[in-house]
């Protein structure tokens, strides 16, 4: 996550470089801010660090540091794709309550689920298994939490399909599709391990594999968004930016992005 942070910092320092600015750095930053606690929650709830005293509070790590950031990460992915759809497919501005409403609804659902999970008994959500020092997701809670993330992923998938016909300058369909399959694989392996494989809490190798999967996925998706424009900024600078602007103008999208080739 340190290298990813450096990539993000470099992007912010060069945010006037328009191919970088086009990536919506605010949303990418929020993605990073969700990826870090998501990974920490995965490490702790899978028992890879020893918890002592009051830190043996599984709901803190399992719900607020793992489930909530993971859900919000996909929510921000959806919002990036929705923003592109709003501008280049619907030809509407990215402003007003209707623009923010879909993501707000998803956020409210996520917060309500986490609050309910916090309130109800640990025996129905997460319990700390003393013998193996790991947080264990209990019964129906496993199925509900898995069902919600799959529902959010489905919403994101629909949005990815909708942006497939954006003209070339802003067509992130390929990157979005790769990101979709990464998050799909991450959620699938988590579902299989946590929901369907009962031995998961007792198998340290499987828990380590789950944490590693989360680590790679969280970083890789952010790199997929930023690495190309950052690379171009470092090695090709204004030459690439001018080509990018000419391509933008050729696609008839200068008005949407409010630039001119000068």
Topology of this structure?
Elements: H1 2-13, H2 18-21, H3 25-45, H4 58-89, H5 97-119, E1 126-129, E2 134-137, H6 139-162, H7 173-196, H8 204-235, H9 237-250, H10 254-257
Helix pairs in contact: 1-3, 1-8, 3-4, 3-8, 4-5, 4-6, 5-6, 6-7, 7-8, 8-9
Overview of the molecule:
With 262 residues, the protein is mainly alpha-helical. The chain has ten helices and two strands; from the N terminus they run H-H-H-H-H-E-E-H-H-H-H-H. It is elongated, with a radius of gyration of 20 Å.
Give the fraction of residues assigned to helices: over 70%
**Tertiary shape:** elongated
* H/E element order: HHHHHEEHHHHH
User: Low-confidence parts lasting 5 or more residues at pLDDT below 50?
Assistant: none
Strand content: under 5%
What is the tally of helical segments? Answer: 10
Rg is: 20 Å
Question: Helix- and strand-based class?
Answer: mainly alpha
Brief description of this entry?
With about 260 residues, the protein is mainly α. Helices cover about 75% and strands about 5% of the residues.
